[in-house]
Design brief:
Rossmann fold; six-stranded mixed beta sheet
Length: about 325
């Protein structure tokens, strides 16, 4: 049996989906699903204060990244004590999770043995399936990986096939960060299209792009979905005044139509793991409620009920 340490939440979910949770011996501070993994020792911590507004967090992260540093720290002593055979991390984004460089530094400095280092690079939807294959291969269970991918693809395809027959696809702006504004990139454009929406910002396979308030107003989407990276529903609700306070907010088509939605980006859209299919289900429920009902409302997403929506209807 392998001793596995996962330093990224999506990888922990992959390990568990493959049936290897009992071999996990350590996790990152963000690994919280399934809930049972929270019993494991924590091997990472952020180098910045994660509390505060979107703008404050953005400034702290940028200050660290501009110095050429990863925004998360690996506990080398903890890794040494755990003696892992396999360490799963990522080489996708130094803001989203522990960087490969930080892990390699800890491994070289502290570990007495030479564990296998699995670095995932999920830039697009296909890369998520590749990540599952990578982890399964590292754990010498490629057949489990194939079965898991086939199951997830079947669920994805069932939704995509159904949406292709639906009329009136709405235009969608997916907001991945509120202040400053950032749109969803990577796998998000693909998910929006599969769910029956017309994506307005971001390119499939490319990193999430910054956007201006003027660009958002000019695009005037039919649907606004706000799911900041790392935020749950409650945290997202607290950040919404940054948008509501904009003078143009009441005149946006999505606001006037009551089609502004909040989603749990931390648990779903920001995690390139098995629950990416749940993210697609959430999108399908939001964009085409007449055709889809998976039961995610209230847990994965909700309507944004803001005071200015009433004022907008009066204008």
């Amino acid at each position: 049996m392998a001793r596995i340490v996962s330093l990224i939440a999506s990888a922990t979910e992959i390990v568990c989906a493959l049936g290897f949770e009992d071999q996990l011996v350590g996790r990152s501070h963000e690994c919280d699903y399934p809930a049972s993994v929270q019993r494991l020792p924590v091997c990472t911590q952020p180098k910045f204060d994660p509390d505060g507004t979107s703008y404050e967090i953005d400034q702290r992260v940028k200050a660290i990244v501009q110095e050429g540093l990863s925004v998360y720290r690996v506990d080398g002593e903890k890794l040494r004590d755990l003696e892992p055979d396999v360490i799963v991390t990522q080489a996708h984004c130094e803001v989203c999770a522990v960087s490969l460089r930080e892990v390699e530094r800890a491994v070289c400095a502290w570990l007495r043995t030479c564990p296998r280092l699995v670095a995932l690079t999920p830039n697009a939807l296909a890369d998520i399936w590749s990540s599952i294959e990578q982890v399964a291969s590292a754990l010498q269970a490629p057949e489990r990986g194939e079965r898991t991918i086939q199951h997830l693809r079947a669920r994805r395809n069932a939704i995509a096939e159904r949406t292709r027959a639906l009329p009136d696809w709405p235009t969608v702006a997916f907001i991945e960060w509120i202040d400053p504004l950032m749109a969803g990139g990577n796998w998000m454009p693909e998910l929006i299209e599969m769910a029956g929406g017309v994506n307005l910002f971001g390119v499939a396979g490319a990193h999430s792009p910054w956007m201006t308030w003027d660009e958002l107003c000019e695009a005037d989407p039919d649907v606004l979905l706000v799911a900041p990276c790392g935020f749950d529903l409650e945290r997202t609700r607290r950040e919404m005044p940054a948008l509501w306070s904009k003078p143009e907010w009441p005149s946006l088509s999505a606001v006037r139509a009551g089609r502004v939605f909040l989603a749990d980006g931390n648990q779903y859209f920001n995690r390139p793991g098995p629950r990416i299919v749940e993210s697609l289900e959430i999108l399908a429920e939001i964009l085409h409620p007449e055709a889809f009902a998976f039961g995610h409302y209230g847990k994965g997403w909700q309507r944004a009920l803001q005071p200015v929506a009433t004022e907008a209807r009066k204008t």
